Amino acid sequence: MDITYSLDIIPGIEQVIDVYRDSGINRPIDNKDRIQRMYDNSNLIATAWHGEELVGISRSLTDFCYCCYLSDLAVKEAYKHRGIGKKLIALTKEKIGDETMLLLLAAPAAMEYYPKIGMEQVGNGFIIKRAK
């Protein structure tokens, strides 16, 4: 199966919502406007494609020199366990460079995944949760 990757393609919001829905990631998929704003205000998107089908995506916010917050990583269920998520993270890290720290908040179900791909768990974070 040939999967192609891109840092230059911003997929349509319907495609993004389809990946989110199929992957099980908890995002406001019933609020298309909010998903659109999430992408309008992000500055690093990595995508995985099987032909014309979007099968994986990562969405980040970064200054490209000090810090990067990887907010979303989603892979369609049928494409999981093929290294797609790991490759999307690797492309993100490659793009931001060695000076930039990569941080993400993992969903409880994904806590075991990230150490397996070489990420270190941190315990020094704080959060003000969203109200909506």
Written description of the protein model:
The protein has 4 helices and 5 strands. The chain has helices spanning 13-23, 32-40, 84-96, 113-116, and strands at 4-6, 44-50, 53-62, 67-75, 101-103. A 5-stranded mixed β-sheet has the order 1-2-3-4-5. It is globular, with a radius of gyration of 14 Å.
Detail the topology: elements first, then pairings.
Elements: E1 4-6, H1 13-23, H2 32-40, E2 44-50, E3 53-62, E4 67-75, H3 84-96, E5 101-103, H4 113-116
Parallel strand pairs: 4-5
Antiparallel strand pairs: 1-2, 2-3, 3-4
The arrangement of helices and strands along the chain is EHHEEEHEH
Shape: globular
Mean pLDDT: 94
Structural class: alpha+beta
Work out the number of β strands.
Answer: 5
How much helical structure, as a percent, in the residues?
A: 25-40%
Instruction: Indicate the low-confidence ranges by residue numbers.
Output: none
Number of helices: 4
Major sheet size, sense and barrel closure: 5 strands, mixed
End-to-end separation in angstroms reads 39 Å
Order of the strands making up the biggest sheet: 1-2-3-4-5
Beta-strand portion reads 15-25%
The rounded Rg comes to 14 Å
Spell out the key features of this protein.
132 residues, 4 helices, 5-stranded mixed sheet, 28% helix, 24% strand, globular, alpha+beta
Q: Brief description of this entry?
A:
By secondary structure, the protein is an alpha+beta fold. It contains four helices and five strands, in the order βααβββαβα. It starts with a strand and ends in a 16-residue tail after the last helix.
